[in-house]
């Protein structure tokens, strides 16, 4: 039985990846930091199948112990401060978790299980103010946020451990990927949640920032398969994972609101609070290498993804509405 250690298993990608690996018969170890309130929503259904290890990415001792306990064949390093907008008010924390802690994780593997295969969750945010379009594995980086800068460090230290210590370390440069498990602060989920609540009369407006930025949005459930495929190759390498299609935030609003028969222009309020100090105007990935070498294929398209998210948020909002009524009466 293969053994995998996942950091960030309570997050969007970690939860899909854990499901996927469990279905493949892996013994899955999940690193989990202590929280004062439960945060198991994404993994509630598989909670009992995951072997939980307590630890924090900033605490090397806990990571060494995690690798010792798990003895993993594969390590997926998905934990991060992952929200771009939060990286300006918390640049040092973002640097500690999203950048330097990648070295913590690599060190834990190098010391305890150097033959384990390692996946690092790199990001299209590294391309930032893009110097060419579309962006591929050879496009130079120009990050535009403390998050993007931190991810560039994480990317290069992964490459460096591969070249210095001959470790099987891969970096997946993933473009934005979403799902009903996406955090509520990200624009796709913020919109689909608002659509559901507005439709059910629980909210009357949506405050939002820049409508012109373009993103290459895919489905998280498709993207985690690429992570696994990278670790099944003969040689470690880095790959761009994307849809090769881009849409504006305005397109996103249109697809989400019109799905429930509403016009977004009747509900949005542009709020400077959601406009960023430096914006990434456009991201569009060229994933030819992943398609050719990994045989990776996309299954869910943009509209299908947004509809899936609206449906899930409608279900959640209905339950919440029922719950509120029960609570009042
Ligand atoms: P999420 O924000 O949903 O999940 C982040 C995870 O990291 C959570 O499980 C969180 O735990 C954990 N975490 C944060 N800080 C620490 C810490 N100090 N120690 C241990 N665990 C910690 O992110 P996603 O699932 O969306 O993304 C997964 C990875 O992929 C991230 O590294 C992200 O930056 C990267 N990425 C994501 C993209 C996307 O579009 N989704 C695109 C490209 C890269 P807790 O539940 O306790 O908060
Ligand atoms: P990112 O690409 O990782 O930063 O993912 P986000 O979902 O946070 O943001 C995607 C794009 O949507 C960025 O260009 C944001 O500036 C833009 N955007 C516009 N309004 C909002 C908003 O209210 N919240 C968020 N999170 N992003 C917004």
UniProtKB/TrEMBL annotation:
Domain NAD(P)-binding: from-to ranges: 5-309
HAMAP family linked: GDP_Man_dehydratase
Cofactor(s) it depends on: NADP(+)
Reported function: Catalyzes the conversion of GDP-D-mannose to GDP-4-dehydro-6-deoxy-D-mannose.
InterPro entries: GDP_Man_deHydtase (IPR006368), NAD(P)-bd_dom (IPR016040), NAD(P)-bd_dom_sf (IPR036291)
Catalytic activity entry: GDP-alpha-D-mannose = GDP-4-dehydro-alpha-D-rhamnose + H2O
PANTHER family: GDP-MANNOSE 4,6 DEHYDRATASE (PTHR43715:SF1), GDP-MANNOSE 4,6-DEHYDRATASE (PTHR43715)
Name under which the protein is recorded: GDP-mannose 4,6-dehydratase
Keyword annotations: Lyase, NADP
Source species, domain of life: Bacteria
Pfam families: GDP_Man_Dehyd (PF16363)
Family: Belongs to the NAD(P)-dependent epimerase/dehydratase family. GDP-mannose 4,6-dehydratase subfamily.
EC nos: 4.2.1.47
SUPFAM superfamilies to which the protein is assigned, alphabetical: NAD(P)-binding Rossmann-fold domains
One Gene Ontology MF term: GDP-mannose 4,6-dehydratase activity
